[in-house]
Amino acid sequence: MRRIEVPTLLIASTVGQEVPPEVSLYLRSAVPRARLAEIPGADHFVFAFRPGLVDLLVESFVMTSGLSED
Question: What residue ranges do the domains of the chain occupy?
């Protein structure tokens, strides 16, 4: 994971039991340019139940991480 060179967005939920919170914290530290967005009160399927929020997170990440072509 240390060889990942591109900015990486990690979106984590705080309620779901599918992936323990320690996993997202580990990934944030293991991937050099990772940014972690934790969504309080959301479960593992936050992308399905709160798509507008996920869209905003991704859009903000793209605009601020140098990935945008604009």
Answer: 8-64
